[in-house]
Structure formats: structure tokens, C-alpha cells
Amino acid sequence: MEIYSKIAISLVAVEHLYILWMEMFAWETKGKEVFKDAMPKELFTPTKGLAANQGLYNGFLAAGLIWSLIICDLYWQKNIALFFLGCVVIAGIYGAFSASKKIFFVQALPAIVAIILIIVS
């Protein structure tokens, strides 16, 4: 079961690295595709700096999750992973209420699954 939890943590981390890339470096291209229903096209250029800031925060979440995978002490490994996954869940729930319900399923649900896998392993 431990390997499944590490795979789940890795997938959540990769997702947040993707979000970092999109929000920091591809906001006006890929961001327009992903968020086409959330905001008008003319707002992508003026919100580029805000999106980059959000992307940086997603990078911090990914870094914390990757860090949890390389910690040798199993007790701390699980606690660090649970902390950062908890942050992802909270961000996903907030995003579902404030922006789009889809964010819950794309962001929060995978983190919840990872948390469950950590708890049962």
C-alpha cells in the first residue's frame, strides 16, 4: 500500500508542477485554453502577474510533496506529505467554491485519495 501512496503523492506533485508551468509561463496560451469558460480572453494579459504568483504557490506545494518522498524517517515522511496534501485539499475546496466546481475533482480529490492511501498504509 505504501507504493500506491507514493505514486498518488507523485501524481499530485506532477499536477502542481504542471499548474506552475501553465500559470507562470503559459498563462496567455495554455491558460486561455484551460480557463476559457472561467474568464474572458482579454483578461489573460492583464492578469499575467497574478497568475504567475498563483503558479509560484503551486510550485511550493509540489516542492513540499516531492520533499516528502525523499525523507528517510517514515514518521516525518508521512506527516510532511499529509501537511502538503492537506494544503492541496483546502486550496481545491476553496477553488471549487470561488471559481469552478471542476477544481474539486481535478485538484482536491486526488489529494484526498493520496491522504487515504497514506492513512491506510
Question: If you had to describe this structure to a student in words, what would you say it looks like?
Answer:
The protein is mostly helical. The chain has one domain. The protein has five helices and no strands. It has helices at residues 2-25, 30-34, 48-70, 74-98, 102-120. It starts with a helix and ends with a helix. The model has no long low-confidence stretch (mean pLDDT 95).
Q: What features would you highlight for this structure?
A:
mainly alpha; single chain
N- and C-termini, Cα separation: 5 Å
Q: How many helical elements? A: 5
Strand content: under 5%
Radius of gyration: 15 Å
SSE string, helices as H and strands as E: HHHHH
Helix content: over 70%
Counted beta strands:
0
Q: Given the C-alpha coordinates, what overall shape results?
A: elongated
Structural class: mainly alpha
Structural domain tally: 1
Mean pLDDT: 95
Uncertain ranges = none
The description of the largest β-sheet is: none
List the helices and strands and how they pair.
Layout: H1 2-25, H2 30-34, H3 48-70, H4 74-98, H5 102-120
Helix pairs in contact: 1-3, 1-5, 3-4, 4-5
Write a short abstract of this structure.
Helix content is 79%, strand content 0%. The chain is built from five helices and no strands. Helix 1 (2-25) runs antiparallel to helix 3.
